[in-house]
Amino acid sequence: MDNSEPMISVIxxxxxxxxxxxxTYDSLKVQTYTFWEMIVIDGNSSDGTLEYLADxxxxxxxxxxxxxxxLGIYDAMNQGLELSNSESVWFMNAGDSFFxxxxxxxxxxxxxxxxxxxxxxxxxxxxxxKIVNNQINSSHIxxxxxxxxxxxxCHQSMIFLRSALVKVGAYSLDYxxxxxxxxxxxxxxxxxxxxxxxxxxxxxxxxxxxxxLYQMYLEKFLIRKKHFPKRKWVAVLNFFWTLVAIAKxxxxxxx
Length: 255
What we know:
The protein is α/β, with parallel strands linked by helices and 255 residues long.
């Protein structure tokens, strides 16, 4: 790689998770792709996270730390997006990490080669000690897949074109749990979105959306209605898909 390589902004949101942000940075600093900046949005941590970040940013000028107080995760992600200095953006939560030392390079190569607005990769779910393998035979994503697919996409394994994410309004605060789904649908309708079977990240699991599944199903229902208001077949599938998802969720709670 030479100095002509495009830079990517890795945006990390953290609050009182020093061990987690250390893990995230440690996985980033060893990446074979070195043209990155790490933008950390800290929620006024009081557990030593800020002290660690201050030391790290002094040692590595690519790490830039900003503090905020009282903002939700999507608001913080939007703030990181505004502060980014590149056209490629990767959101990696504190506690999550790159799957291997060349994940950033492999992801960027695919993203840039295909001239994408969004690349969606695979991920490893540590809480279940397994790889979530999508077994993708094609990089193409159909409208059914993007609307109702169960392939388990997560933003820790996505590379966004910054201008595309900004164009769709970034992360809407109207959807506290499923705002990333809203952004993905918006980008799908205006840009080029591909999948890859590359495993790009390792995530902690049991995140915010996992703890608020009922609300997530309802928000996704509203998001589909917003993006596809005139397609009757989408409305019908949306209703029954949401009904079945909530029924299965309630059944699991009764066990």
